[in-house]
Design brief:
By secondary structure, this protein is α+β, with helices and mostly antiparallel strands. The chain has 9 helices and 10 strands. Helix 1 packs antiparallel against helix 7, helix 7 crosses helix 8 and helix 8 runs antiparallel to helix 9. The radius of gyration is 71 Å and the shape is flat. The two termini are 57 Å apart.
Length: 654
């Protein structure tokens, strides 16, 4: 049954897969054929778009106001469009529509029931203007595109910019011409073929009443699946169909084919029916085999089961009477008789062994109790030893810690002593250098004193020289006054002499001016000399005050030199004593190291002793536990032996 159902499922899946692939290939071929047809319509509109004569007449039509020119141009345009569409019977008509409603429409072909001014107000007309020259495909409207007499038609339109006023070229195609392109395609009973737009609404369908309505399946609208695919889908009515679809590269519409799944698997259902027939036959055969098995196998097995139940209750004397059969049932009966014989022998032997085990268990219980008492005494003694070793290890650890602490402090003392030694050496060197500097300072201070004394003497001499200059200036001042008086007398005498003394008067005037200038110069020199004399007196006073200070400085320098000599001598003694202290500290550090090592060894020995004691205590405890366990096992063995003896007494062996 399972194989049949699997075969049915595989056949069903295989049919669906093969039909799906074949349908997808068919849909691709039909879509490509339709694209060729649609492309021919698009090329035809493109040829009309670039037609020079059409463009010329459209320019005339858009610029002239003459009725005759308008009529002539409209006729020429209509004839030109008829030339293009005349050879294609699938085109029902064409029109060139001006965006200016006053210019009207030029048509060609069968346009009975022409819709007139309403064309410029349609959605497809506005969409064409927005596309600005790109092709726009027009879906059926139910009332026709150009003329209401052709309701079942599709169209295509594009903008023509041949003049200042743009025109819209629209071409109307009979819907039946598109249907004929794929009417010969047969995908099976109940299959459907249709063209839908991006929203999933019918554009082309055998049933024209469904145009504009939603397709029976909802197709994807996004992603790669929206372009083309082939898969199982559910219709709006809930039935399962295989849907294959492909998007046209020219129109953007999708060609869709659907095939009912139930029609595909009608042939595969024969496998399902055959499977159920085989299931019925197999059931009848199984019942017959069951009756035969019950008579030949089940009844003897029931007898053997009853004998086994009797043996399980303790009767080891039961034996099977089925001894004439040579098949598996007869072998099983012989094996049962042999098994019961061996169990009987084993029960007798076990009873004898249980008695011996019971006696041995009693002796083992007494020995285990004695061993447990001795183990308890050993465990108590071992615990006391372990406690003592632990206390010793703790005290040794404390001593080791104190020794380590002393060792660390001793290292700090050695480090501080080394720093003091280094500092003392540096202080001694500084004292020696200070003593040398103080000697140089004493020498330089003596030279400064001599130079100050010499400067005082020279300033005194300079003071006397400035006094002499003042005296000379007084003499020069008197000479200037006398010269001025002589020049005044000469001027008076020249005035008395009249014209003869004019030259002498000029000379006298010049002498008077020279005397005035000399007086001014002498006054300036006198002022400068007075200032120099004042500064010299101040210098003498400063030097007089500084000389005692130099004397005191010399005394202080000599005392400081003596202090440096004293410090140098004392630092020498301090360095010697510091070296002795360093030697003592080094000896103490060596002793401390020995003590620390000894304490470490003591601590290690104490810890090892404690660990050994604890291990011995642990072993003693374990030995005690084992002894107690051994006692319990002995008692349990005794109890089990008595129970085994009681159990074996229930079997009937004779």
């Amino acid at each position: 049954m399972t194989v049949g159902l699997i075969a049915y499922s595989q056949a069903k899946n295989l049919v669906e897969k093969n039909v799906s692939e074949a349908s997808y290939q068919t849909v691709n071929q039909v879509t490509n054929n339709l694209d060729i047809v649609f492309q021919s319509y698009a090329d035809l509109t493109l040829q009309m778009l670039i037609d020079k004569e059409l463009q010329t007449e459209l320019k005339v039509l858009s610029t002239t106001n003459d009725s005759y020119d308008i009529l002539q141009s409209s006729r020429t345009i209509s004839d030109r469009m008829s030339t293009y569409i005349m050879g294609n019977t699938t085109i029902t008509g064409a029109a060139i529509i001006s965006t200016d409603e006053e210019d009207g429409v030029v048509t060609a072909g069968n346009n009975n029931g022409y819709k007139g001014d309403t064309l410029t107000k349609t959605d497809w007309f506005q969409k064409t203007l927005e596309q600005d020259g790109r092709l726009v495909w027009i879906e059926p409207s139910g009332t026709g595109i150009i003329a209401s007499k052709s309701p079942n038609s599709i169209g295509l339109a594009r903008v023509i910019k041949a003049a200042s006023t743009p025109y819209v070229l629209v071409m109307e195609v009979n819907l039946e011409a598109v249907l004929k392109r794929y009417q010969d395609v047969q995908l099976g009973e109940g299959s459907t073929l249709a063209i839908v737009n991006g929203a999933g609404q019918y554009v082309v369908n055998d049933d024209l009443s469904k145009l504009g309505e939603p397709h029976i399946v909802t197709l994807p609208t996004e992603g790669e699946e929206a372009k083309s695919d082939s898969k199982k889908m559910t219709t709006v009515e809930g039935s399962s169909v295989l849907a294959a679809y492909q998007t046209s590269e020219i129109t953007g519409w999708r060609f869709v084919a659907t095939i009912p799944v139930e029609k595909l698997v009608e042939q595969a259902s024969i496998i399902s029916k055959l499977t159920w027939l085989m299931v019925g036959l197999a059931t009848i055969i199984a019942i017959a085999i069951g009756v035969l098995v019950v008579r030949t196998i089940a009844t003897p097995l029931v007898k053997l089961r009853n004998l086994m139940v009797e043996g399980a209750r303790g009767n080891l004397t039961v034996r099977s009477t089925i001894t004439k059969r040579q098949d598996e049932i007869g072998q099983l009966a012989d094996s049962f008789n042999d098994m019961m014989t061996q169990i009987t022998s084993l029960a007798l032997q076990t009873t004898h062994s249980a008695a011996e085990v019971l006696e041995t268990a009693s002796e083992l219980t007494d020995a285990s109790k004695k061993t447990a008492i001795a183990a308890k005494e050993i465990a108590v003694a071992t615990d006391e030893i372990a406690n003592g070793a632990t206390s010793l290890a703790v005290e040794a650890e404390r001593g080791s810690d104190l020794t380590n602490h002393m060792n660390a402090q001793m290292k700090d003392v050695i480090s501080a002593n080394e720093q003091m030694s280094q500092s003392a050496i540096e202080v001694d060197q500084a004292s020696q250098q200070g003593t040398a500097y103080m000697g140089q300072l004493i020498q330089k201070t003596g030279l400064t004193e001599e130079m100050t004394r010499s400067m005082v003497e020279k300033v005194d001499a300079l003071k006397e020289s400035t006094g002499s200059i003042v005296k000379i200036l007084d003499v020069l001042n008197n000479l200037t006054k006398q010269t001025n008086i002589l020049s005044l007398n000469a001027t008076i005498e020249a005035a008395r002499a009249g014209a003869a003394g004019k030259g002498f008067m000029v000379v006298a005037d010049e002498i008077r001016k020279l005397a005035d200038q000399s007086k001014q110069s002498i006054d300036i020199v006198g002022q400068i000399t007075a200032k120099i004399q004042g500064e010299i007196e101040e210098t003498v006073n400063v030097l007089s005050e500084a000389y005692p200070l130099f004397q005191e400085q010399i005394t202080s320098v000599k005392e400081a030199n003596q202090i440096f000599l004293t410090v140098q001598a004392q630092m020498g003694h301090f360095v010697e004593k510091l070296e002795l202290a360093t030697s003592s500290i080094n000896q103490l550090d060596e002793s401390q190291s020995v003590l620390s090592e000894a304490m470490t060894n003591v601590s290690a020995v104490a810890e090892e002793s404690s660990a050994t004691s604890e291990e011995v205590a642990s072993l003693s405890t374990e030995q005690l536990s084992i002894s107690d366990g051994l006692v319990r096992l002995s008692e349990k063995l005794d109890s089990v032996s008595r129970g085994l003896k009681d159990s074996l007494s229930k079997f009937k062996v004779q």
